[in-house]
Amino acid sequence: MSFTDLQRRITDAARAQAAQTVAHRRHLHRNPELSFEEYETQAYLEQQLTDLGVPVRQVAGTGLIAEITGEGGSGNVVALRADIDALPIQEANETSYRSQRAGVMHACGHDVHASSLLGTAAILQGVKAYFPGKVRLLFQPGEEKLPGGATLMIKDGALEKPRPAAIFGQHVHPPLPAGTVGFRPGIYMASTDELYLTIRGRGGHGAMPHQAVDPVVITAQVVTAIQQLISRQTDPTLPAVITFGRIESEGGATNVIPNAVKLQGTLRTLDEKWRKELHQRLEKLVTGIAAALGGSAELEIGHGYPFLKNDEPLTRWAWEEARRFLGEDRAVELPIRMTGEDFAFYSHHLPACFYRLGVGNPDRGINSPVHTDTFDVDEACLETGSGLMAWLAVRQLQG
Questions:
Q1: Mean pLDDT over each residue of the chain, to the nearest integer
Q2: If pLDDT is split at 50, 70 and 90, which confidence band does 3 have?
Q3: What's the CA gap between 238 and 228, in Å, rounded?
Q4: Which among 88, 255, 342, 348 counts the fewest CB atoms within 10 Å?
């Protein structure tokens, strides 16, 4: 089959499948489940894959692995990944498909990722005669929660027997309009560690601070000093971030000095060696300042995801293939991001390409960021997402 005929076949299949893909997305959006609790989601996805005639097995607790075997002879394996978990957010949208679970919402687009991959499965089933090898579909739980479902998928053999030659993942991106995609070769996203810090002092009366050891004042010193790990100890050419998003005292009032203050934050960088060094310097800094001011500090670091690196040759190839499939102006370059993704684990095991799927439509008021209670997508993105993933898989296997 010629390049043009294959492109038309996949494009037509994505269009024909679009209504069903939207229906999948709306079902998943109505019925979100939190990380590692995606039992109904798993059952729904498994049934849809079985109905398509795609062999599927359960892994990683609530995850799935499915494989579609081409009829073009033996060949490589290409993996496609979608995450399936939701967030603890109460949805504010008033739509026919709004979340039916109080306090839980697909606010990061994982319903789009999963339904799009279902659409890709349907397309690939119809073009099996035109590619060799296998396409391995990974429906992964727990992207939003440490240790990250990717680690469990890998542990359960998602990247083995045989080892995929490449893996692709896509993620919704509201700043890009629906119908477009974005790529970034090389290092793309940051490592993500969670910080849990307790500063202990000795409580007392606010009018007699000399009889207490004020952990609030110590905390103020610590937070300010920590920022110098970034501004004065990190190479200015190396992106790094330390942010504390929550600070609360244990007790305390307008005239009461508390015994302790607890902080929660995040540490992010794009270099694994410096990440490890920051962990050590952070521990030394907080304990040293607290001790110098008469208190103490306890730091717990929740080791999160590594930085995400897009294989440069693979990603440049995928970018060019997206231009050919969608059009020259519909595949754009992305900047580096300091957000994190557990797809990063896959990228440290084999050639990987993690790209962005445009979902925005400002004219319709669809432009809220991910992780907000008003997040939504222009569902035209699903035709683009399912078609492009099928195209990349087939073209990669064709060599």
A1: 97
A2: confident
A3: 14
A4: 255
Tokens of 99: 């979340």
Res 350 pLDDT > 90: yes
Taking the C-alpha atoms of residue 171 and residue 175, their distance in angstroms, rounded to an integer, is: 12
Closest CA to 68 of 117, 11, 1: 117
- Report the distance separating Cα 215 and Cα 55, nearest Å: 58
CA distances from 156 to 52, 58, 59, 166, 206 (A): 24, 10, 6, 18, 56
d(CA 73, CA 373): 47
pLDDT band at 223 (very low <50, low <70, confident <90, very high): very high
> What's the CA gap between 216 and 188, in Å, rounded?
37
> pLDDT tens for residues 306-332?
999 999 999 999 999 999 999 999 999
pLDDT digits (tens, 9 = 90+) for 237-247: 999 999 999 99
How many helices (H) and strands (E) would you count in the chain?
Answer: 9, 16
Handedness of CA 272, 277, 278, 280 (dihedral sign): positive
What is the C-alpha radius of gyration for the chain, rounded to an integer number of angstroms? 24
Helix (H, G, I), strand (E, B) or coil at 399: coil
* Mean pLDDT of all residues in 128-140: 96
Identify the bridge partners of residue 171 per DSSP, sorted by sequence position.
356
Q: What are phi and psi of 195, to 5 degrees?
A: -110, 130
- Distance, in Å, from the CA atom of 86 to the CA atom of 88, rounded to the nearest integer, reads 7
Whats the size of the chain, residue-wise?
A: 399
Tell me the C-alpha distance between 118 and 76, whole Å: 21
Domains within the chain, CATH numbers bracketed? 3-189+307-398 (3.40.630.10), 192-305 (3.30.70.360)
DSSP state letters, 355-396 = EEEEEEBGGGTB-PPTTSTT----TTHHHHHHHHHHHHHHHH
Region at 396 (left for phi over 0; alpha for psi -120 to 50; beta for the rest): alpha
